[in-house]
Predict the structure.
Amino acid sequence: MIRIERSVAISGLALTLALLAAPSVHAQSADMTFFVTSSGPGKGADLGGLEGADAQCARLAQTGGAGPKTWRAYLSTQAADGKPAVNARDRIGKGPWQNAKGAVIAKDVADLHSAANNLTKQTALSEKGEVINGAGDTPNRHDILTGSQADGTAFAAGDDKTCKNWTSSTQGAAVVGHADRKGLRDDEPSKSWNSSHPSRGPDGGCSQADLKSTGGDGLLYCFAAN
């Protein structure tokens, strides 16, 4: 009986020491400087412009336990109504950026837009530290809104690539990237995290249903800019 009690006590002590030695999820989340949103605002590509998208990033970062940071959505806008274009790469700070589990996804802006970045299905985690469904999963949610070219710059004015600069949930199109770096073909666009293909669908290309029809859900990449 005494031996059993000692064994239980030793096992309990070992478990306590292991828990104390392991880094807490909350501590890791506090250092998080990059995530994929677990959800979008729910109005398709109408994000309320860049301000609305940034606010979505900030809300989810807070619920995910991130410390006080300035969050920016990785989105470009096109020149329109007398306003200049905005490049996604210029909005997100200098890096480095790490996910909710501490994995560094890129050390700086150049690294992020190079073949050497560490963005994969296993590292492009949500603010909760969860993997985003990708190709082969049900439902597939790997289409992430960016409105950007592969180098992180905006498209020229003209053909809509940003669902009217993130204000339309009906007509238009928005360029998306694949968070899992997989697509229907084995080519660079299919593997691109930020510039794979434009949205499309029966509602005009920018509705929530349209985004879902091609493997998306109105999700965003969020970066801490400070």
Remarks:
- The longest strand covers residues 216-224.
- Residues 1-27 have pLDDT under 50 and may be disordered.
- The CA atoms of residues 64 and 128 lie 5 Å apart.
